[in-house]
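Let's inspect one such protein example.
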Amino acid sequence: MNLKYDSMNTRILFPLAVLLVGLHTFASAADRKPNFIVVYTDNLGYGDIEPFGSTVHRTPHLNRMAKEGRKFTHFCVTAGVCTPSRSSIMTGSYSQRVQMHDNPRDGWVLRPVSPYGLHPDEVTVAEVLKDAGYATGIIGKWHLGDQLEFMPNQQGFDYFFGIPYSDDMTQEAGERAAARMKKNPEAPNLGGLAWPPLPLLENEKVIEAPVDRDGLTKRYTEKALEWIEDNHEKPFFLYFPQAMPGSTSKPFSSPEFRGKSKNGPWGDSIEELDWSQGQLLDKLVELGIAENTLVIWTSDNGAPINRTPGDVSRGSNQPLHGRGYTTAEGAFRVPTIMWWPGTIAAGTECAELCTTMDLLPTFAGIVGGDVPTGRKIDGKNILPLIKGEADSKSPYGAFFYYDGPQLQAVRSGPWKLFVPLESFRNHPHFGRDDGSGEKALLFNVVDDIASENDVADVHPDIVEKLMGFAEAARADLGDMNRKGSGQRAIGKNANPTPRVHSDAKQ
């Protein structure tokens, strides 16, 4: 054996082998499908974070995300409340189409131990990505049905850690609801008679009841980082619906953040959410997968806000008009930032209308997955808008604003029309009973961001055009007591049972 020759070969071949392995790894990384993370906050207002104008909440990590990514200033949800909004992000469809907008027992938001939930036959964004080879996880608030067949593990998610509905739906809140119903037998039964302690679940197992609500943001963040670490060597989809700032008048936060903001509990919870987002972005950089991960920060609907001008202790939707739980811009248009280093140009902004329904078809298009067939998907592939391609425009000819089962407004281009209504529950411009809703209202929501100038009398042709869109929506998606031809079934369990018994140890 020629040791000198072999030694020389080793010195030559070993670096070559390392180079080839490196090139192979680089090629594999370049060919790998991107990861997706969707952070879905609860009731966060348009004006609640610094990139969208807040001067009372410190959000340095979201500032970084906006500086390195792309703000979407006309990104809309499809409902002003939790359950229907979440059904759209999962299915790529209006909540009216999947009938998650209204039900006889719960109304417009699912309550604990509800017989209703997202129909198992619906194809979720998690199922689309799972079929494309993705690891799928949800950490946070589900709120699309708490019976087993409606829960995340049955809807395409490999892993679930979180609560099945809103964090304010506690046993104590149920008892208060029961007391109100006892005083007023005519009040709707919202299931308050038998709400269990608020459960924290890991997959289908209750691991704590009642859960410590103060620690939810921190615990969710730690679990999200752990899950990313465990799954980062393959493509993954993490749906991260945070519980905060939530529906209560005094949101919860960890001791480290309590009392630290300029805006009481609401501000404390938002500043902790910002910390959480910083942890997430840093983890992606640490693992070397930042450039292969699209991160989306948004909210399920706008802030409920206080009625007193200038009081932002329950959030801010400024400069938009109106509050959450309505069809105002302040309820539907939410603060959205997308971050994908190397793909999204840093410090850019998109002012085209797009929605949460677009995530399913967009993700499917990016990975070559199959958009569900045999049913109508209302969302569009908005990858050109995400990338900021030249001349890319909103894919929507018309977009519809429902308040539960009632169509109240239509948007097309810059125009938003509030249709005439004989009666309404939550008209965003007028009081409930003054009759003013009988008149059509038209706003240019691009030039008139606060929706202050009604120009319906000036543009009767635009009013007529948008009224035509409204009638088409009523025929397809329904309206009040009118069934839509394009509606699909809601899921129903005839004998719902609680995730944890109401007499569980407190």
Remarks:
- Confidence is low (pLDDT under 50) at residues 1-29, 431-435.
- The chain has eleven helices and 18 strands.
- The longest helix spans residues 3-31.
